[in-house]
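Notes from hallway chat w/ T.B., transcribed later so I don't forget. T.B. wanted the structure written out for a chain they're using in a teaching module, and asked if we could keep both sequence and structure tokens in one place. Agreed to drop them here.
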Amino acid sequence: MSGRVVYSSDKGRVCPTCGWPANDCRCSKRLDEPVPAKVTAKLRIEKKGRGGKSVTVVDALPDNGPFLEELAKALKKACAVGGTVRPGAIELAGDVRERVRALLAARGFVVKG
């Protein structure tokens, strides 16, 4: 026996990577990739799988949790839209590429797309 918990009725789902309960997973919150001095962000619009609604995706960002959370909060507030953080990307509701492009350039990011 490996001693690794596969499922527990006490805690529910368990993360296969770190072994913690899925709602308190340690590996998904610990994104420690260092933020480079020059960040390149790629902008794109997606509609597929969203019921025809479009989202602006800021992709190719470093996998650093606090950095992504702070950037997403600033972009959502400046564009007055909702959004979410994915590993290495931020999704914002609607087509706000032009506003995001200007905001990222003001922060010193290289923006492509």
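Follow-up for T.B.: DSSP finds three helices and seven strands in the chain. Might be a good example for the class.
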